[in-house]
Specification:
With 225 residues, this protein is mainly alpha-helical. The chain folds into two domains: 63 residues, Winged helix-like DNA-binding domain superfamily/Winged helix DNA-binding domain (Arc Repressor Mutant, subunit A, Orthogonal Bundle); 139 residues, GntR ligand-binding domain-like (Four Helix Bundle (Hemerythrin (Met), subunit A)), CATH 1.20.120. 67% of the residues lie in helices and 3% in strands. The chain has ten helices and three strands, in the order αβααββααααααα. α1 packs across α3, α4 crosses α6 and α5 packs antiparallel against α9. The two termini are 34 Å apart. This is DNA-binding GntR family transcriptional regulator. Keywords: DNA-binding, Transcription, Transcription regulation. Pfam families: FCD (PF07729), GntR (PF00392).
């Protein structure tokens, strides 16, 4: 695997802090304080904040040059997960049509590590692996436009996951009846089996399951097909 740049490392560490609920929706992220806490110079932290803002994960603070975690709303969560379901299910379908053995092996490796980190309650690393899984499928669709929009939707939806999925927002007693790594495994099985229809359905079910299990006020998600 390629080594991460200083900017990418800063971005992942910022996401880990947010996954640990060190910050709340609406709260400003101060570049100087983050650089000091991460033991990094301000340049990669500044660049990482800008990259996260470009995905919708952060927004510009009103009346200042900094960034903040956006406020989250029922309408926004519905819109984001609706579009994720449509685009990512199609990406999984395209991946199943032409996935290489190397892609399948990497999906299996990520998925196995997801189970390990879930059982060890390593929330930050689990979040990173979840990103790796979804982005690899998007990359493997071989459609640059799909990849671009999936990345933006993924990061925006990730705010709701990090703050309102029981695994991230509860210290214990989180919902173990719904295990996302098992849903991921069904997607990999379909991709490896070269079954585009099954891959599409498995991803659509996974996105809908994620939406339904968020501890956030929302309407039933309909028409995602």
């Amino acid at each position: 695997m390629e080594s991460l740049s200083a900017t990418d490392k800063a971005g992942r560490e910022i996401v880990r802090l947010i996954a640990a609920h060190r910050f709340s929706p609406g709260e400003r992220l101060l570049e100087t304080a983050l650089a000091r806490e991460l033991g990094m110079s301000r340049t990669p932290v500044r660049e990482a904040l800008g990259q996260l803002a470009s995905t919708g994960f952060l927004v510009k603070s009103e009346g200042s040059r900094g960034y903040q975690i956006p406020l989250l709303t029922p309408k926004d969560i519905e819109d984001v997960f609706f579009m994720r379901g449509i685009l990512e299910s199609k990406a999984a379908m395209l991946c199943a049509r032409s996935a290489s053995k190397e892609t399948v092996l990497e999906l299996r490796r990520i998925n196995a590590r997801e189970e390990e980190t879930f059982r060890a309650n390593l929330k930050g690393e689990y979040a990173e692996l979840n990103e790796d899984f979804h982005m690899l499928l998007a990359d493997s669709s071989d459609n640059p436009y799909m990849k671009m929009y999936i990345r933006q939707l993924y990061w925006r939806s990730n705010l709701y996951v990090l703050f309102f999925m029981s695994f991230y927002c509860l210290e214990s007693d989180y919902d173990t009846k719904r295990l996302s790594y098992l849903e991921h495994r069904k997607i990999v099985d379909a991709v490896e089996g070269g079954d585009p229809g099954a891959a599409e359905a498995a991803m659509r079910d996974h996105i809908l399951s994620s939406y339904n299990h968020l501890l956030f006020p929302k309407k039933p998600l309909e028409g995602m097909s």
